[in-house]
Specification:
Number of helices: 1
Number of strands: 3
Distance between the termini: 21 Å
Strand order of the largest sheet: 1-3-2
Largest sheet: 3 strands, antiparallel
Order of helices and strands: EHEE
Helix content: 10-25%
Low-confidence stretches: none
Radius of gyration: 16 Å
Number of domains: 1
Structural class: alpha+beta
Shape: elongated
Strand content: 35-45%
Length: 64
């Protein structure tokens, strides 16, 4: 029987005046220290950005 993978989500919003390098740095810090992965990145018409990060939820199973 296959398991359904569950994810925890975090949405980050960045203003239009934030540079690409700063956005990349923030996402990299979340990935390295919080074990998040980038799922989706969207650039809006006004220049604002929004990133969706996800990480797996690991459920502990009772063994005894």
């Amino acid at each position: 029987m296959g398991r359904v993978v569950e994810y925890e989500w975090r949405v980050l919003s960045f203003p239009r005046d934030m540079s690409r390098g700063d956005v990349r740095r923030v996402i990299t810090e979340h990935a390295e220290y919080g074990h998040w992965e980038l799922s989706r990145m969207r650039l809006y018409f006004g220049g604002a950005r929004r990133a969706w990060l996800r990480r797996r939820i690991i459920r502990a199973q009772r063994t005894a």
